[in-house]
Amino acid sequence: MTTKQIRIALLDMNNNRVNQGFKNITEIAEDFRKNSAETVSIRAFDVRFKNEMPAVDDFDIFISSGGPGNPHREGLEWEDRFAKLLDGIFSHNKTDHSKKYLFLICHSFQLAGIHWKLGNICERKSYSFGVMPVHKTEDGKDEFLFENLPDPFYAVDSRAFQFIEPDHDRFEELGMKIVGIEKFRPHIHLERAVMAIRFSDEIFGTQFHPEANPAGMIENLKDEKNRQAMIDSFGMEKYLETVDRIDDEDKIILTQKQVIPRFLQSAKERLLEQEDTSV
Q1: Of 269 and 274, the one with more pLDDT
Q2: How far apart, in whole angstroms, are the C-alpha atoms of residue 277 and residue 152?
Q3: Are strands 194-198 and 177-182 parallel, antiparallel or unpaired?
Q4: Cis omega (within 30 of 0) on the bond before 214?
Q5: Facing residues of 45 across strands?
Q6: Under DSSP, is residue 59 helix (H, G, I), strand (E, B) or coil?
Q7: Measured between alpha carbons, how far is 53 from 68 in angstroms, rounded to an integer?
Q8: pLDDT in tens, 184-198
Q9: Residues contacting 142, CB < 8 A, separation 6+
Q10: Displacement of CA 243 from its chain's centroid (Å)
C-alpha cells in the first residue's frame, strides 16, 4: 500500500483582484482530491499581491493561474521568485528521479514564454474575450491532454497580450513543442498566436483558460469590458449565438473536463510509479 501524499500548490496570479478562473482551478483541484484514494493536500499561494511562493521541494504538482496586466518584467520581487520557480522545476526534472509537475495558464504561460525567450509576447491591438476554437498542431495531435478533444476544440480566451513569432530554434534547443495555435483567418494578415506549449514531459501551458466553465463565463460577461470585447470580436449576432451555446457539452464543458483533470491524474499516476520504483 502506498504512503505517498500528493501535494498540490495553486499559484494565484490575480494580484488581489476577484477572479472566476482561480475559483474554477480550486474547484477542479478539490474534485481531484475528493476522488483520489491517496491523501491529497492543496495549498494556495497569493503570488503577486502577497509575494507568496511555494518551494520546489515542498510540492509535487503546481498549477499557476492567469491574471491581469503586462507579463513583462516590472522589477518586482515576486517576478524573480517566479522565474526561479520555473528554472527550479525545469532543472529538478532533468536530474531528479522524483519529478515535479507544472501547469501554466494565460498570464503564467506568457511569463514562462518571456522567461525562456521563446518568442514575441506583445500587446494585442484589442482585448480578446470569448469562446474560441483552438487548433492542434502536428505535435498537438499526439498530445495526450488533448486526446479526447476534437480538432479544433473550444476554450475560453481572455487576454490583452499574445504570444506570436515563436523562435523555433529556441524551442528545439530546449526540447519544447507548440501543440495548439489560434484559428487560421486568411482574411486577416496577422500572425496566429501560440495557444498551448508542451514545455517538457512534466510542464505544460495554455494561453487559453482550460479551467473555465459556463457559470464562470456568464459571470465574466457581466463585466462590460468583457462583453464589449466579445461583441467587437464577433459582432452582436455571433455574441448572442455564443452565449446561447455556452453550455454545449462539446465546447468549454468538454475542455474543462479533459485538460486539467487529465494533467492531474497523469501526474498522480507517474508520481506513484516513481515511488514504487524507488522502494
Answers
A1: 269
A2: 38
A3: antiparallel
A4: no
A5: 11
A6: coil
A7: 18
A8: 654 455 578 999 999
A9: none
A10: 23
Separation CA 83–CA 151 (nearest Å): 33
Question: What is the C-alpha to C-alpha distance for residues 165 and 255, in angstroms, rounded to an integer?
Answer: 26
Confidence band for 1, pLDDT divided at 50, 70 and 90: very low
Which residue is associated with the grid cell 459582432? Answer: 235
Is the whole-model pTM more than 0.85? yes
How far is the C-alpha of 154 from the C-alpha of 260, rounded, in Å? 15
Q: Spell out a b/e string for 79-103, using b for 16 or more CB atoms within 10 Å of the CB, else e.
A: beebbebbeebbeebeeeeebbbbb
For the sheet with 203-206, list strands across it: 39-46, 5-12, 61-64, 101-105, 203-206, 194-198, 177-182, 120-136, 153-164
Q: For CA atoms 159, 184, 232, 237, give the dihedral sign.
A: negative
Going by the DSSP 8-state scheme, the letter that residue 185 receives in this structure is: -
Rounded Cα–Cα distance for residues 39 and 227 (Å): 41
In the predicted model, what is the mean pLDDT of residues 219-233?
82
Burial level of 33, CB count in 10 A (0-12/13-18/19+)?
middle
Pick the closest to residue 144 from 249, 270, 262, 32 (CA basis). 262
Smallest Cα–Cα separation from 120: which of 62, 81, 163, 150? Answer: 163
Residue located via cell numbers 457539452: 249
Closest CA to 33 of 10, 55, 57, 1: 10
- Average model confidence (pLDDT) for the chain? 92
The position carrying cell 514562462 is 112
For 97-129, the pLDDT digits (tens) are 999 999 999 999 999 999 999 999 999 988 888
